[in-house]
Amino acid sequence: MKGEQGNDSQLALDNQLCFLLYACSRSVIKAYKPLLDPLGLTYPQYLVMLVLWEWHDEAPQLPTVKALGSRLRLDSGTLTPLLKRLQQLGLIGRQRASNDERQVHLELTREGVAMRDRARHIPQQLACETGADLNELVSLRTRLNTLLQQLES
Amino acid sequence: MKGEQGNDSQLALDNQLCFLLYACSRSVIKAYKPLLDPLGLTYPQYLVMLVLWEWHDEAPQLPTVKALGSRLRLDSGTLTPLLKRLQQLGLIGRQRASNDERQVHLELTREGVAMRDRARHIPQQLACETGADLNELVSLRTRLNTLLQQLES
DNA sequence: GTAAATTAGATTGTATGCAATTTAATTGAC
DNA sequence: GTCAATTAAATTGCATACAATCTAATTTAC
């Protein structure tokens, strides 16, 4: 009886971490929504655009679906329809690689590149809205990064 | 030009927190999967069962869909079909309240109560698998709780 | 060199999330 | 007391997530 109670509370405490991750993640996504609506993007679509914008700066070669999925931890079952929607929006293009026909390379259209300017204000605006301490947010980021590494190993 | 670069990196940093929340949350849910599969539960269904098990201990009156949604930050659009599945599985019952016909009260079936014994080992097992420091996890939980409060205010 | 194994994407099916609307019941204003 | 707001669930529609399967292309074993 006493043992069972102990197990239950331990379970609940540990559980609250996973639930808090789940609840915080959804809550942050909700906070993004009013900022992303004017761009016509969902949150996962916004993450894809962020990766493509970063790649656009750093690499001459554009990423494949595989490389994008590796960065975002999403598979083709999620990305294929999402990327088709971004293509419908005129933000990206998709090209089969000529040297390996299995791969699909992504590219930003002119509008896709241009949207970056309209997105630049978003992170700051969100940080202001939460009113959280910046050092606290950086510390949290570091800890979550460590946790993610542990979960993936 | 320099200003734009500064905005971009600031954006990327802040973004990594929201992305890490998103990635960690999904990664933790994946880690739960092999432990929940034997119970035939998905992760959101498991969260619902956790709330009902807690209520079962503490309150004589069973929660409504509204109260459950308030606890999990989920609305009826998500919960109604999920609860119907739990009912199909024979784990819960749903009863219209007689004093207010708009409300639906939830109850655990005998099997729903019994499943708790088969779920008790899950949190410990998961904590062991991640190999994370317990104090670290508690600290992270506290910080996420603070963040969630800020996001919801 | 060719068959088997592997790989990258696409597809299918199930289960969330959530905005928006609908329905039915209750409450409030007057 | 009655009609307008409000409320609790349910429903609808859209966009993820993700397991499982499929297809086509490439590698590997031999």
UniProtKB/TrEMBL annotation, chains A, B:
Gene3D superfamilies: Winged helix-like DNA-binding domain superfamily/Winged helix DNA-binding domain (1.10.10.10)
Protein name: HTH marR-type domain-containing protein
Compartments it resides in: Cytoplasm
UniProt domain HTH marR-type: residue ranges: 14-153
Assigned GO CC terms: cytoplasm
Keyword Phosphoprotein in record: no
Record carries keyword Cytoplasm: yes
GO MF entry, a single one: DNA binding
Single GO biological process annotation from the record: response to stress
Principal localisation: cytoplasm
Record's keyword terms, sorted: Cytoplasm, DNA-binding, Transcription, Transcription regulation
